[in-house]
Predict the 3D structure of the following.
Amino acid sequence: MWAYVVRRLLYGFITVLGVLFLLFLLFFTVANPEDIARKAVGEKASPEVYAQWLENHGYDRPLFVNPEYPTSSLARYTDTLLASHYHDMLTFDFGRSDADDTPISARLREGALPSLLLTFPVFLGGLLFSIALSLLIALFRDTYIDRMAVVLCVAAMSIATLLYIIFGQFLIGKVLRWFPISGFSGDPAVVWRFLALPVMIGILASLGPDIRFYRTIFLEEAHRDYVRTARAKGCGEGSLMANHILRNAMLPILTRVVTTIPFLFVGSLLSENFFGIPGLGALTVEAINGNDFSTLRTMVYIGALLFIGAQILTDVTYTIADPRVRLG
């Protein structure tokens, strides 16, 4: 197994290098360092101010090849923006924001807790509700309850998350006035009031696709030979669903769960912006709108690392959930 993990880590490292190179190309295809400097210090600044800003942020070097060095010199390729980009990311030296010159590492620490306070309850609540309801629907398979549930799930999947947010803010926040429409406070005594509405909406928006996915898994397991054998031995339907079908459906459930974990740390783009939560999702949107390459590349890099790590963790958890699985 360890040889497999090491091999996957090497493949993951190559993938991260490719992601960073693609991000570098995409960003400097639509922008250049001079545009970034003008947006950061203002259009009316003097050329000397532009030059100083570019030098302070490391944008005063060529993109790929530095003609100041001879052809045989290694510095011709290492003293460039691309080399600096790889060095900073691989050493986790995220530097400062291009928009307001604040340390990016500090902004990551400040935004991690608000993001987790939002995404973790949505993840855990959605997982528990969707699995429980899917088991109940699978228990009543081929009945009107099953058919109605499928129709409702498809209808829920057809509604954009943005509509859930707008409707929830209008009904619960404005009409019923149960919770604030937007805002955030770090005070543990009141933070739940600001998170209750986005958490409820996040769970509701996830139920449609999750229930349909888990229902399909449980129905596939319900037609296995071991289920018919257990039923022939007198096992009740409730016990059959909980003790046999759920247990044998753990592999696809683990796949969905573990691959969702990285998104808990990078935040929710829509919810954080619409509810005014200063998390990592809101930070990413600010970086996109503000042409903040330093912050944006950091968020993409962290997301890539978390996703690759989650893929490897998924394979490892397979061997724990099912001893028959062997990693080659």
User: Anything to note?
Assistant: The chain has a mean pLDDT of 82. The CA atoms of residues 250 and 321 lie 7 Å apart. The longest helix spans residues 104-139.
